[in-house]
Specification:
2 copies of one chain form a homodimer. Chain A has 294 residues and is an alpha/beta fold. Chain A contains 13 helices and 9 strands.
Chain lengths: 294, 294
């Protein structure tokens, strides 16, 4: 089976690299060209997404946002113009669940399968092939793509039909943002009350407050290591997707809305490029007090 | 060393039972009398807290709230009237960190040690001797009490000086409430978008959204098992403590404040006695939609 990979940024390049390293023939294309290291490894550089779709049986997309996926799929040099029945399109970008269902219908109308499979784990997970992959697909399409997912990730779950992967990713980003905010409020309270936030974090890890965020992001808040990681500006994008979805679905998500406002404040204070654990800065600025000193 | 235990409710009774079972002499007292099972086990029933303080070298308090601790310590028949220098008072109730520091000063002025050691783990943890115990004390007093804590709990941390235990417990309750709210928003979003919340929970457990709350309370939301557990009305008390502390410390804790409002809504809708995982009901009522059906 010939593969395609469109979008070779900090996530896409190492992910495509794992497919090549496993011996797959990979037709690659990216807005800024195919990195020489990938070509050296054996990637076949294609000029357009249309060419990739003509050459490959199954192709992955890994680009920043909903409009980029739309351009890759349906733009002037897009995938749709090169597809023929029986091929499979797998979008691993993190984009709108609503748009995903519309994109899928248009691709399915061409006799092809569409799979949404956003990831969590960032650049580190992409390089280490340890990404969490949340999949929306038919059972049949999932079975076809799963061995390839296993070259790129570790926790691979078929969540439901097309769109369910993106829905799950949005749910993930809601919890991550709100758990960061929760740890921020708790550590700020503890520090201002005169307790050592590091000991508090340690004590809380033994009980119901335990979380991956308390473990990893709590430590970042205490040690002031706000280099990304996952940037505030990307989490702003994800929470906007959540709220756009909430609006369309008729839901009220008060803490998600509030967390986005706090991230806006972080960005306004020069923190758009910092790790999302720096969400605690919005609380600190409001209180004129820090969890810990740098 | 002779021990005392004041407050023999659903938490205190099994905790005192563990001390007796380990062979300690325990002078016991409670507002509603000493349970016959404890007397049968060997507890020495005392009529007042003053008597307990006269008889015991080290005494535990386990009562519902700040005013109850104040009454036990400084009331007409309180501990203070029976203390003599060199004795140790250990308050394991969950109460105000600010009041705790004041209580400690008054007890220390009598030549005694004061230790605050609130717990997490509930009735189940009290019975199983698996409580998480968060301790505020001097190193010396902690070393004296630690072997006794080990008869009642498992994760035992000296967080800092007197008051730090209560501060840590408040931080714990902030995170637990806000993580429940986070899981509620995420699962409600996923369910309304048409995904299976059980599969979403499963997928999220593999990544940064993983938490004890997603594991335990997320499952409760999906299976609609809202029997307590830990009741909404108790968590309301704890969040009020957090906000009282925030006011005194000059902190803004926006999500803690909002979560308390949601718990008020849960209580207004008949849920004061339900498990705190039913916080999701406030979101569900607002959205006229449930994560799952009963």
């Amino acid at each position: 089976m010939k593969l395609g990979f469109i979008g070779l940024g900090i996530m896409g390049a190492p992910m495509a690299g794992h497919l090549i390293a496993a011996g797959h023939e990979v037709f690659a294309q990216s807005r800024s060209g195919v990195p020489p290291t990938l070509v050296d490894a054996g990637a076949i550089a294609s000029k357009t997404a249309t060419q990739v779709a003509q050459s490959a049986d199954l192709m992955f997309i890994m680009v920043p946002d909903t409009p980029h996926v739309e351009e890759v799929l349906f733009g002037e040099h897009g995938i749709a113009k090169g597809l023929s029945p029986g091929k499979t399109v797998v979008d691993m970008s993190s984009i709108s669940p609503i748009a995903t269902k519309q994109f899928a219908q248009r691709i399915q109308a061409l006799g092809c399968d569409y799979v949404d499979a956003p990831v969590s784990g960032g650049e580190v997970g992409a390089k280490a092939a340890s990404l969490t992959i949340m999949v929306g697909a038919t059972e049949e399409a999932f079975a076809r793509v799963k061995p390839l997912f296993e070259l790129m990730g570790k926790n691979i779950t078929l969540v439901g039909d097309v769109g369910a992967g993106q829905t799950c990713k949005v749910a993930n980003q809601i919890i991550v943002a709100l758990n960061i905010e929760a740890v921020g409020e708790a550590l700020l309270f503890a520090a201002k009350a005169g307790a050592d936030p590091a000991r508090v974090r340690q004590a809380l890890m033994g009980g119901f407050a335990a979380s991956r965020i308390l473990e990893v992001h709590g430590e970042r808040m205490i040690k002031r290591t706000f280099n990304p990681g996952f940037r505030i500006e990307l989490h702003q994008k994800d929470l906007k997707l959540a709220l756009e979805g909430a609006g369309a679905l008729g839901l009220s998500l008060p803490h998600t809305a509030s967390a986005l406002q706090m991230m806006n404040s972080c960005a306004a204070n020069g923190g758009a490029q910092l790790d999302h654990s720096s969400l605690v800065r919005a609380l600190e600025i409001a209180a004129n007090f820090q969890v810990a000193q740098a």
